[in-house]
Amino acid sequence: MSLCAHAVDVAVDGRALLSGIGLALEPGRLVGLVGPNGAGKTTLLRVLAGLLPPAKGGVTLDGAPLDRLSRESRARRIAALFQGAGVGWPMRIREIVALGRLPHRRAFAGLSDADAAAIARAMAATGITNLAERFEPTLSSGERMRVLLARALAVEAAWLLADEPITALDPAHQLDAMALLRDIARGGTGVVAVLHDLTLAARCCDRIVVMEAGRIVADGRPEDALTDARLAATFGVTVRRGQAADGTPYILPWARATAKETRDAADPRPV
């Protein structure tokens, strides 16, 4: 079930947020969406989720225009997790995760056996089973992020769109979350995650899409998209590269690029 953006433009109050975005996404891969603050990453994710209509262009899901699908149909196929998402009132954690099953339930219907199983799987996968009877206001920011991720996972949608899913997590839970997203993709789900940690993005993602000023400027395997020149031009940083004992390559943002390094690396042509 492909998810594609076709020549998408988005503008707010006369300011262009996305310009000419073309992106074809296939299930079974973990795609990292990276770029500096204000590059348009979250805006693109909202367009792909059907939450923000583009000014021009459109989005298709398995070839069908996304805006022609009912909200219920979209909600069953695309699960989204955005920064700043909340609950609104105190609820037990199990009840919050159960909200992810709403697209599959009839109005006022109770949880089915399938719903209960999906909720249990999502909580186990995110390591929050022990929090089931806690109330949301008692959680740390990292625990809250894992609960909201579990709510998204409980949908068991064909696509998972996650906006900075590891930002509030400690290092151990960041590794756990990235491994989980990768496993979900290996199981056939399409996963797109906005990430700021270039090291984890390069290590864990199958594909990296780099955005700058509302455009896609690189798209490909991590080693092809995150070149020294691209990182200097887009992020204004130089990096150090190495290889772990198991042969896995890694990159570390190391220092701000000089004005000359940034200028020499700049390539204004979008992908």
TrEMBL record:
Pfam families: ABC_tran. It comes from the Bacteria. One of its GO terms (molecular function) is ATP hydrolysis activity. This is Iron-chelate-transporting ATPase. Belongs to the ABC transporter superfamily. Its EC number is 3.6.3.34. PROSITE patterns: ABC_TRANSPORTER_1, ABC_TRANSPORTER_2. Signal peptide: none annotated. It is an enzyme of class 3 (hydrolase). It comes from Methylorubrum extorquens DSM 13060. Residues 3-238 form the ABC transporter domain. Keywords: ATP-binding, Hydrolase, Nucleotide-binding, Translocase, Transport. Part of the ABC transporter complex HmuTUV involved in hemin import. Responsible for energy coupling to the transport system.
